[in-house]
Give the backbone structure.
Amino acid sequence: MAPRKLSDGQWLADFYSVNRSDGKQGKRIRKKFATKGEALAFENYTLQKVDDSPWLGEKKK
């Protein structure tokens, strides 16, 4: 999900760590930031970190 702006002016990064099309798996991550750029950078960093984890095994296709 894309970051969204809250009523107090902060930005909320709200996303899941893995693809949820196969059912409920993966952790939901929610964190507030002062700017949209920070929220996007955090989301991209977190998703890249999950993709680079060799102990999670191969992805289902």
Notes: Residues 4-54 form one domain. The longest strand covers residues 11-16.
